[in-house]
Recover the amino acids of this structure.
């Protein structure tokens, strides 16, 4: 049984001032501190087993050759060109387009919604963006196939208007088709993340700028954009990570024919090793972890910077 | 599906946008705004309407509800749905029993660990499902690898980002220490305090965490397909060649189902907070 008393004792033991305490009581307080955190143990064990062990396994296997010895050959294979580098490039290109474009469109949309007079509209969009941002994967792919697939309804409608996108280089099952589908969950995701920042733009700032003789453009250039920028950039990084790691949508849409890193990892797990050693998939996984780490850390840092103005 | 996880970096995830008029610029009508809303409305609503229309059309182009009644008899669908349901229940139960006591205890006794928890619960986003399954498959013991419940165990990890954020937001909104001390001084044990005092107070944040978890498990394709278990989304893809109308209909129903569920939670949440507000005003 842990009492309040233990907790205070334990936290006192962790303050720098505790250095003056003689060592036996220090060990005791450390023991207490251990006892205080003991109920958190199941959580840490679960995370270590479910997240830590698999990560270690991936990193380990990424550096193992076909017969188990340490090697850089997997890393060399995926970075030295060929199909893996192509997948890497396509993934980066896709993630860049489907993060920058939705970031701009999502910010505009969020601004229109936030400053709208209609409470009902605001509520509908709030719940809808929660749902749509979650709506990736198989269902989404099927919806778009039914909408603008080769013989689908909207395609037919556009063809009757004299513009069949399929006759003008559009292919739902290729790169730009995937872009179109990704926007469907990336834009709502952006609306969801950027809304608090836009709500943080205070009317008084704008009034102050106007009183000082600023035009609308000057207000945006000198006040609005600098305040919003860290949030927008951070959110863009998060969208980048989201696009980079999405698998189900592209797999269900293209049947695995598009060369993206997640698709290549999936193919590896399904036993279709494209070329190179047996552990090539783990090297791809490791590369992905590194890229995701960069984008999520960037998001967290920029978000922290952004909240300075939003309190 | 990484979007499920990332969505909730925003605290709470779902809910009404707070509208403080003093912080929002009041608009005049401008055609630019209407255009933005029109285009957004078309892009987001047309595919839903069209997909439903497609699903409910037979080969002659006539509208009929026959596909709806044909759903239960599709080979494999019932089994896939049942498997997904079991996984959803398992994920929610484990996730709640693991996360609720842990996060409550952390907030109460060791709040200095908050940054650590925030970081840990971001990790499932850094290591997305497609990569995680890569490490889980070679690491899992054989008895788990041959069972679909390995997926349930891993889904708990996937739900952590938003379960944690939802819980932390809920705990931030109540006076945790006073509630616990009151309950303890009235003689309630820890379990009783958790179950009879804290859980009812955290109802709306727990509910939104549960709904998002269920939505995640019912829609999760990446891990299930690579672990070779036919859950609902895997069935949809596998069966698409046989009958595109039926699979599209099932896909659309699961979308609308999720939406309705979320809407219900949000409105429940709002009526709850309104009632609380009234109570406060009375007292």
């Amino acid at each position: 049984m842990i009492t309040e008393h233990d907790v205070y004792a334990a936290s006192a033991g962790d303050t720098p001032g505790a250095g003056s305490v003689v060592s036996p009581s220090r060990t005791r307080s450390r023991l207490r501190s251990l006892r205080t955190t003991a109920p958190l143990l199941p959580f840490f064990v679960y995370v270590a087993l479910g997240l830590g062990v698999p990560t270690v396994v991936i990193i380990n296997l990424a550096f193992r050759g076909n017969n188990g010895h340490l090697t850089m050959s997997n890393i060399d294979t995926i970075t030295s060109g060929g199909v893996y580098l192509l997948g890497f490039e396509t993934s980066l290109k896709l993630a860049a387009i489907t993060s920058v474009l939705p970031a701009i469109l999502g910010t505009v949309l969020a601004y229109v919604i936030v400053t709208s007079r209609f409470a009902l509209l605001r509520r509908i969009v709030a719940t809808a963006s929660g749902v749509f941002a979650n709506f990736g994967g198989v269902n989404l792919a099927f919806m778009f196939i039914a909408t603008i697939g080769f013989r689908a309804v909207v395609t037919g409608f556009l063809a009757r208007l004299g513009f069949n996108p399929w006759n003008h280089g559009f292919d739902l099952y290729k790169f730009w088709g995937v872009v179109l589908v990704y926007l469907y969950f990336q834009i709502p995701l952006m609306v969801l993340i950027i809304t608090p920042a836009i709500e943080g733009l205070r009317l008084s700032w704008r009034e102050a700028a106007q009183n000082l003789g600023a035009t609308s453009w000057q207000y945006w250039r000198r006040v609005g954009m600098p305040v919003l920028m860290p949030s927008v950039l951070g959110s863009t990084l998060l969208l980048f990570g989201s696009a980079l790691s999405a698998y189900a949508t592209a797999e269900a849409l293209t049947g695995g024919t598009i060369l993206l890193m997640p698709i290549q990892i999936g193919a590896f797990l399904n036993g279709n090793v494209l070329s190179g050693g047996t552990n090539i998939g783990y090297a791809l996984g490791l590369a992905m972890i590194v890229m995701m780490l960069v984008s999520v850390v960037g998001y967290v840092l920029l978000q922290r910077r952004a909240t300075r103005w939003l309190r | 599906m990484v979007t499920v996880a990332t969505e909730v970096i925003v605290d709470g995830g779902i809910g009404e946008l707070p509208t403080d008029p003093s912080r929002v610029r009041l608009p005049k009508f401008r055609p630019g705004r209407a255009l933005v809303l029109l285009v957004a409305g078309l892009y987001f609503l047309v595919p839903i309407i069209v997909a439903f229309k497609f699903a409910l059309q037979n080969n002659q182009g006539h509208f009929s509800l026959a596909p709806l009644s044909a759903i239960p008899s599709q080979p494999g669908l019932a089994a896939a749905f049942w498997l997904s349901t079991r996984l959803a229940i398992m994920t929610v139960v484990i996730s709640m029993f693991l996360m609720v006591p842990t996060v409550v205890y952390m907030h109460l006794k060791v709040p200095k660990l908050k940054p650590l928890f925030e970081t840990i619960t971001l990790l499932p986003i850094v290591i997305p499902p497609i990569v995680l399954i890569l490490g889980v498959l070679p690491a899992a013991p054989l008895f788990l690898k041959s069972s679909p419940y390995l997926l349930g165990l891993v889904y708990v990890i996937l739900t952590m980002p938003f379960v944690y954020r939802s819980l932390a937001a809920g705990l931030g909104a109540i006076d945790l220490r006073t509630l616990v001390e009151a309950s303890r001084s009235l003689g309630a044990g820890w379990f009783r305090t958790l179950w009879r005092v804290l859980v009812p107070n955290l109802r709306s944040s727990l509910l939104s965490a549960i709904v998002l978890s269920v939505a995640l498990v019912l829609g999760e394709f990446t891990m299930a397909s690579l672990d070779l278990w036919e859950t609902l989304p895997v069935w949809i893809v596998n069966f698409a060649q046989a009958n595109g109308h039926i699979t599209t209909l099932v896909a659309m129903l699961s979308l609308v189902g999720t939406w309705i569920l979320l809407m219900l939670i949000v409105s429940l949440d709002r009526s709850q907070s309104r009632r609380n507000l009234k109570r406060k005003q009375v007292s």
